[in-house]
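This part of the workshop introduces the protein records we will be handling. Backbone structure tokens are a discrete shorthand for how the chain folds in space. Once this layout is familiar, the rest of the handout is easier to follow. The record below serves as our worked example for the rest of this section.
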Amino acid sequence: MIYIIMGVSGCGKSTLGAVLSEKLGLPLHEGDNFHPQDNIEKMARGEALTDQDRLPWLLKLHELIDRERCSGSDALVVCSALKRLYRQILLHGFKALTYLSCQDQEIPLSTPPDVFFLFLYGDYDLIHQRMVARRGHYMKADLLRSQFDVLEPPLDEENVLPLNITRSITDMATEVEKHFISLKSSPTL
């Protein structure tokens, strides 16, 4: 089982990931650690990343997710995954881009049953407050609006567990733990 913890910057992805890693005993892969240095410098200057900037980063994370899935391991991956295209690249790599170039196909690539998106969502003002208060992160609070502007919330068909960030981290982690246990006990996986 792979859980991709997603949402805009400042929503609590890394904090939830650390709690879940401890609680479930799963490895945690922090997506920020996979950004090319150019991306980090761009965000530190207050410049929003483009799709082209994100592509090498998403492909690195796809390789990681694919490796974990192929080994049969369970893992947590923290990644904003703001657009459906980004989520498709995380799951299918270059195949997602090839699919997009074929205009005659109507059915999107499916989400594998062993991958779930934990979508942390919340109000802009609350998240902006959190970002202003945090220290030591290269992502500037001024960039939050750009993330909300491009955010495409995941659909149910993408295997999503939505988590409202007004809840406590403990409460969200408990819900994910119950979800994890129910899926692990399911004979279909």
